[in-house]
Amino acid sequence: MKTTRGSSGGRVGRPALTPEARENQMISYAVDLAEKQLREGTASSAVLCHYLKLADSKARLEREKLESENMLLKAKTEALKAQAHNDEMFAQAIAAMKEYSGHGNDDIL
Fold first, then answer.
1. 32-41, 64-73, 89-98: which range is least confident on average?
2. Which one has a higher pLDDT value, 53 or 39?
3. Residue 21 belongs to a domain
4. Into how many domains does the chain fold?
5. Rounded to whole angstroms, how far apart are CA atoms 77 and 70?
């Protein structure tokens, strides 16, 4: 995506097409502004505290824990989907075996 600089020096690009993309765009703008303020020495104490907390080892461990929990939830979701698929396949296999053995379709008699 090609961006240009607007009159205020900020990036001006294509408008976001989804709410998630817009949110990511706003986050990017906020981080860029915070970086500029930190470089120029004009950052507020709130901005400084935010980035100092990010550097803190406890916060890093908490982020890693949240990422691990997120991966675990995704794995559990996939396992549940796979189990449902297996159950369906087993049911189809049993029905096919019943039909093959002559016990499947009682309506034919």
1. 89-98
2. 39
3. yes
4. 2
5. 11
Residue with tokens 């916060």: 59
Give pLDDT, residue 2. 44
**Cβ-proximal residues to 12 (8 Å cutoff; 6+ apart), any chain:** 3, 4, 5, 6
Output the 3-class SS for the chain.
CCCEECCCCCEECCCCCCHHHHHHHHHHHHHHHHHHHHHHCCCCHHHHHHHHHHHCHHHHHHHHHHHHHHHHHHHHHHHHHHHHHHHHHHHHHHHHHHHHHCCCCHHHC
Same domain? 51 vs 78: no
Q: Are the beta carbons of 95 and 104 closer than 8 angstroms? A: yes
Q: What is the mean pLDDT of the chain?
A: 84
Domain extent, residue 82, equals 67-104
Same domain, 79 and 99: yes
